[in-house]
Each structure stands twice: as structure tokens, then as C-alpha cells.
Write a structure and sequence with these properties.
By secondary structure, the protein is α/β, with parallel strands linked by helices. It is built from 19 helices and 16 strands. It has four domains: 123 residues, Response regulator (Rossmann fold, 3-Layer(aba) Sandwich); 151 residues, Rossmann fold, CATH 3.40.50.300; 65 residues, Helicase, Ruva Protein, domain 3; 45 residues, Orthogonal Bundle (Arc Repressor Mutant, subunit A).
Length: 455
């Protein structure tokens, strides 16, 4: 049986040779390209099983190669790799049909399982004689989202995968995590990008007015209804309707929304005429909807209608490695010439951020105003620690009789186990989540007998 063929498109000689050696040692047949034009030629003429495409290449960049390969009907599983990762690159790669996206420097432990999954998908596609349809996608790019942590890279991939479909999306996350940015990115990268993006905050409009706001009303439908009003569903035709804080919707409106979602028709208040609406629906919530369903406060059937695809945004405390990039973004916005000292940055990185990115943004705005000589130091950082009862209660449960070392070991083991579960057994990602070097993680795995732990 012939070996599977991998194309490596990488202009950096050392990186290319390292990848060739690694993959040949694993039994793959490897072909290499040093620039984008050569990579495209190899893709179309040699039809490899999987291609690793560097984004930054002379001639054609990796995204352009990806686009042209897909337009030509190439069935190769394409994986984009870059050291210059940002949200737009990840989203573009996934919406153009990339199999996946990986950041440089390449972690071989992460790459090899990824290649095997891509090869398995390639084999299944061949068996079903499936060939990708050429994609016609809008040229608009998503508003920039900041963060290169594994959690945010996963979010970017999901955005790219769902953008080109009309599937209903539920964006979840704590207040201040940036749910609206995700909605903007989905819309601007979708086939409806030229249509309107209509936003409604369900928690900000009184219940008595929200029905008219969503569905509109006819003249005379109620007191002071002096004219016909078009609702937000109709305004969003051929575009996207975003309903924020959907968990706050009153029960009566939940029933009406369910009908609109199911039938894609609405009726204005004061009218019995059904109006068809062609739109994509995205909702968001910071509330635990499963808990609300269990308490009878949110309709179960509506929950399942809205929860087709879920994008979960991580809280800032779970992606602290993104804080320096966010700080620089907020400092540079509006042409400011303000810098920050390492001590002040460390203070920001150590804080737990209950208000997430929005709280960080406000803290930087405040510090930039207070900064003397255009440099933010520790004295300019004003944080407002919030005492959480749950945290205080948890610490009270620690047994002093067990001693310092035993308690620390138990906490350490628990953190390692949680990180492995969250990383789905990927030890490199688990180490990154914990903010430690991989060697230290391996030492802890041996120490606590977790070498074979898969999450």
C-alpha cells in the first residue's frame, strides 16, 4: 500500500527540512514547495493527501493558495500554519475550507494527531467520491479579535466553519467576554455580509415594548400606535438578526419567537397576515440556559432550536496569556502614545477580571488618563477586587490538619487533571493552559501517577 503523501509549503529552509525529516520518519511520502506558486502547482498536479501551508510565503501567500485550490476543486485536506496568527487569518482559513489551523512554532505532538485525523477524513471523502464545491465568499474581513491563546484559536476556527452556512448560532460567555465581536465576525464573513446586521438587546427593552420591537405593529394595534412599524425581523431580511441576552426573554415572547424560528414567518401586532422573513438568527447569553430550562424559566423546545451551534467564549481569567496583546491594542487605539511598565502589566496579568475584557478595557482607559509622561506604572492601575462567597467558602474547607504540602499537592494534582480534561488529553495544550513548560507537566504527571491520563 503506497504511503500517504504530505505537501509541505514552507519558505523557511530550516523549518521545511525539520518537517520533512519528521514526516519521513513517520513513514509519509513528502513533497516540498518553497513558495506559493510552487505549492499551488504541486496541489493541482500531484494531488497530495494533506498539505501544510505556511501563510507567509513569497509570491502567493497561504490563504491565496488555499482559495485557488478550493476554487479549482482540489480535495486535498489543507492545514494552514503561521507564526503571525490573528483572528482574521484563522477565520479566513476555516471559512475557505481549510481542514484546520495550527500556530508556529509547530508542536510535533499536536501536528501528528492532526495529520492522522486529516488523512482519515481524506480517505472517507475518497470513498464517498466527495469533491468540495468551489466557494464564493465575500471579500469583507472580520472586525479584529485579539488573542492567540488556544481557547481563542478554537473560537476563530468555529467562526470560520459556521460563517458560510445559515445555521442558527448561540454565543455563550460571561458578561464582557466579547460576544458581540463574535457575532460581527460571523456576519461579516458570511454569504449575507452585504445584508443588514440588526441587533436587539432583549434585556434592555421593557417586555411591553419588546414584542413590537421584534415583530412590528399595524396602525391602531394598541394605544398610541399611530402608524405601521416594521419590526427587527423584517429589518434583518437577507441579513442577520442578533438577539442579545436571549435568556432574559419573557415566557410569552419565547412562544412567539419559537414560532418565528420554526416557520420563518412573523405577524405584526394587530395583524393576522403571516410575513416570510429570510434571515440568519444568532443569539447570545451570559445566563445558564440549561439551568433556566430545568427551572421552567426558559422553553426547552426553544432552547434546542437556538442551540444548533454553540460558540463558548472563555473568560479572561482562563486566557491570561492574551492580556498583554489586549493591553497593547487598547493603548494604541485612537493614536495614543502611551506605554506601560512591566510591573503594571504584571499587575494586570495577575488580576482575576470578573468583568472580563470590558473591565480590562475600562482599566486601561482610566490608567491612560492618569499616566504621567505617557507611561502607565503600578500606581496608575486602579482595580476593584470582588470577594466571591464561593471562593471564600472553598478555602474554608481546606483541612489544616493535612498540612501545607499535602494540600498543595492535592490542589496541584486537581489542576493538572482539569487541564488535561480541558485539553482533551493533549499534554502540550494542557501545559499551555497551566502556564508551565511541558517538561514540568511531565514531571507532575509522573509524580501523581497520571502518565496515561487522557482527560
Amino acid at each position: 500500500m503506497p504511503a500517504e503523501t504530505i505537501l509541505i509549503a514552507e519558505d523557511e529552509t530550516v523549518a521545511r527540512l525539520s518537517l520533512i525529516e519528521l514526516l519521513e520518519n513517520q513513514g509519509f511520502r513528502v513533497i516540498a514547495a518553497e513558495n506559493g506558486h510552487e505549492a499551488l502547482s504541486c496541489l493541482l498536479q500531484k494531488n497530495p493527501d494533506v498539505a501544510l501551508l505556511d501563510v507567509r510565503m513569497p509570491g502567493l501567500d497561504g490563504i491565496s493558495v488555499l482559495r485557488r485550490a478550493r476554487e479549482a476543486g482540489s480535495g486535498t485536506a489543507l492545514i494552514v500554519m503561521t507564526a503571525h496568527g490573528d483572528s482574521n487569518i484563522a477565520i479566513d482559513a476555516m471559512r475557505l475550507g481549510a481542514y484546520d489551523y495550527i500556530s508556529k512554532p509547530i508542536d510535533f505532538e499536536q501536528l501528528l494527531p492532526l495529520l492522522r485525523r486529516a488523512l482519515k477524513r481524506r480517505i472517507l471523502a475518497r470513498r464517498s467520491d466527495a469533491s468540495p464545491e468551489p466557494l464564493i465568499l465575500p471579500a469583507e474581513v472580520a472586525p479584529m479579535m485579539i488573542g492567540h491563546s488556544p481557547a481563542m484559536q478554537h473560537v476563530y476556527k468555529l467562526i470560520g466553519q459556521v460563517a458560510a452556512s445559515d445555521a442558527t448560532v448561540l454565543v455563550r460567555g460571561e458578561s464582557g467576554t466579547g460576544k458581540e465581536l463574535v457575532v460581527n465576525a460571523i456576519h461579516h464573513n458570511s454569504l449575507r455580509a452585504k445584508g443588514p446586521l440588526v441587533k436587539v438587546n432583549c434585556a434592555a427593552i421593557p417586555e411591553t415594548l419588546l414584542e413590537s420591537e421584534l415583530f412590528g405593529h399595524e396602525k391602531g394595534a394598541f394605544t398610541n400606535a399611530m402608524y405601521r412599524r416594521i419590526g427587527r425581523f423584517e429589518e434583518a431580511r437577507n441579513g442577520t438578526l442578533f438577539l442579545d441576552e436571549i435568556g432574559e426573554l419573557a415566557p410569552a415572547l419565547q412562544s412567539k419567537l419559537l414560532r418565528a424560528v420554526q416557520e420563518r414567518t412573523i405577524e405584526r401586532l394587530g395583524s393576522n397576515t403571516s410575513i416570510a422573513v429570510d434571515l440568519r438568527l444568532i443569539t447570545a447569553t451570559s445566563r445558564n440556559l440549561e439551568e433556566a430550562v430545568g427551572e421552567g424559566k426558559f422553553r426547552e423546545d426553544l432552547y434546542y432550536r437556538l442551540n444548533v451551534i454553540t460558540i463558548q467564549l472563555p473568560p479572561l481569567r482562563e486566557r491570561r496569556q492574551d492580556i498583554p496583546a489586549l493591553v497593547q491594542h487598547f493603548l494604541q487605539r485612537g493614536g495614543r502614545r502611551v506605554s506601560i511598565t512591566p510591573g503594571a502589566l504584571a499587575l494586570l496579568c495577575d488580576y482575576h477580571w470578573p468583568g472580563n475584557v470590558r473591565e480590562l478595557e475600562n482599566a486601561i482607559e482610566r490608567a491612560a488618563v492618569l499616566a504621567r509622561s505617557g507611561v502607565i506604572d503600578e500606581s496608575d492601575i486602579q482595580l476593584h477586587p470582588v470577594v466571591h462567597r464561593e471562593a471564600a467558602h472553598w478555602t474554608e474547607q481546606i483541612s489544616l490538619e493535612d498540612g501545607w504540602k499535602a494540600n498543595l499537592a492535592a490542589a496541584e494534582k486537581s489542576m493538572v487533571e482539569r487541564a488535561l480534561r480541558k485539553a482533551e488529553g493533549n499534554k502540550s495544550r494542557a501545559a499551555e493552559l497551566l502556564g508551565i513548560h511541558r517538561r514540568l507537566l511531565y514531571e507532575k504527571l509522573r509524580e501523581y501517577g497520571l502518565e496515561n491520563e487522557q482527560g
